# Entry
Amino acid sequence: MTLNRRTLMIAASLTAAAFVAAPANAQKQYGPGASDKEIKIGNINPYSGPASAYGTIGKAIGAYFDKINDEGGINGRKIKYITLDDGYSPPKAVEQARRLVEAEQVLLLFQSLGTPSNTAIQAYMNEKKVPQLFVATGATKWNDPKNFPWTMGWQPNYQTEARIYAKHILQNVKDPKIAVLFQNDDYGKDYLDGLKEGLGAQASKLIVAMKSYETSDPTVDSQVVALMNSGANVFINITTPKFASQAIRKVHDLGWKPAHYLNNVSASVSTVLKPAGLEKATGIITSSYHMDPTDPQWQSGKAYQDWLAWMKKYYSAGDVASTFNVYGYSVAQTLVQVLKQCGDNLTRENVMRQAANLKNFQVPMLLPGISITTGPDDFAPIEQMRLQKFDGNIWVLFGEVLSPEGS
Amino acid sequence: MAATSGLATIPVAASGTNWRRIGVAVAIAAALVLPWLVSDYRVFQFTLAGSYAVALLGLNLLTGYNGQISLGHGAFFAIGGYTAAILMHRLGVPYYLTILPAGAAAFIVGVLFGLPALRLENLYLALVTLSMAVATPQFLKYFDHWTGGSQGIVLRKPAAPTWLPIGNDKWLYYQMLVVLLIVFWAGSNLLAGRTGRALVALRDHPISATVMGINPVFYKTCAFGVSAMFTGIAGAMAAIATGFVAPDSFNVFLSISFLVGSVVGGIATVAGAVFGGFFIQFIPNLANDISDAAPWAIYGLFLLAFMYAMPTGIAGFIRTMAVRYAPKFRTAVGEQPTSQPGSHS
# Structure
């Protein structure tokens, strides 16, 4: 009996020692969810509920991983993609995140969608030290590596965009007097903060009028009238689609001719500009970072053709006019790059290290000149945008690639 | 002796009490052992299911016992959740002291809402309460100074004391279990006595109930208030367990799933609330596991199957089974049952 136990103990400690020693010798290192054969990736998307229109992003990501797997995977490992529905409900997102981390044992959580859902799981992910990579939201707070070293955004955030407008105004408008219309919530205030920061010390002098609206307001006509009467020559339109249409129409009908900056949230030709009247929208400036699949200027290019071929082969049920499918494709390519860089060291620590080590990574469907760069103190992957002006028919790019800091 | 459905409780009452006691004891024992048998992630799910069960007890009291249909209980759940969150986040109140104020806040709103509701019957009341569910997320966004707007409020999750060798999830589970047991004890006492009979009488025959001296204004308002209070307590429990509240946590669908859960569990029963809580928590997940292409179609099938097989809900089904088999068991094995017929595992 004692002999048996002792033998067992020795055997056990030898085995344990072997396991401890192994990683030191071998090149390969694995965190939970990674092995010689596969890499498990978790995702949470609203396939049901009020935001289910975004669900196509989760499907597009899966379709892109199918393509990668067909081509042999990443460094010989197949991607196992587990995507769960949270119905855009934060408590459900918490539950699904816990399921992915604790029951499914994924290596990382990728592209969980929505500011509320990501806010709900952020503390948990950082406490568990599981990467919460490239979250699908425009809020600025995801770029906070000091407090949340396991969370990273992807798309340009609202403040970045606002600072780009501020910079353009300062460089191009003589004696600017700025009027701002904004939605009275976190999204609107995020933009406003970025704008003020971009304008610098003189912000309070340059901004001559600010009006807000509630999403429950029937129109923003009275706000636009008040802004015009302030004598401003620049109008910054921080509104969601319905209100953007109203404001564009009202500005035109009043005969007001300011330099008109429209936020990217409402840059859709079909849902915003058409209802307002295309001729009324002519001359408006906005910014963008990825190609619009309905824009003829990209459709003959290789990037679009590759994207279209992938859509047809792997996601034939998807809409080829939807920018969400461009988004899913591009963000999935970014993750694949991170995992390639990880090589055989697929630990959660190394995933974050590599995610923060992207250097001028080119994503085909982003606008020419825009690339992804991150660093240990820079958790905002896309910080460049390009300005475009509406010519009455399509958005026409102009000027250089802009970023809030250098030129 | 036309002893059907509602009246069927009378003949079984004598033997039923024993069976019920045994059932409750088994359920509590199972609830105590459960966290040691499953993973922490499941423990968290059961904690949420428990909070839904408390919410459903509130709804059952109002809709089941008093016959007032509410499609707006998500609003009381939100009031409870936000009261707890604001107390914890803005005023630094420890989480365990926020549950009673959450219930009190929901009680006040419930009573205020119950007063105009007195003039509305059935479907009209359902519509008015639905309006409350629809409006809740926007109200929460509007008062963003307190509620944090659409970003919500992030709460620190309660940690188990260091001297206690159980994880945070089990610790929270047991505390919430205590809350649940207190609410259920209070609720079943209330419903088993004079008040319960008054509520049922007002539901079944308001005119004769009034003639017998039952004050409809008092009892109906009371039902609304107490119902809202239970649901508010549940909201606080869920907020503490999730560690986060946001307007999107309390959408219209939550209110509708409460009604679904209480009917599937067994309307006008106390035990039904527990089964309903399990239904709300686990059936959508199960549907998602079966088919991620059409989870809500599967959910619909589950709902149809439940309603077809158990028209009086899960609790009603168990009671029917007990009525049918319990006397036989009693004669066979006397007063010492070794297994409980119709018990669900």
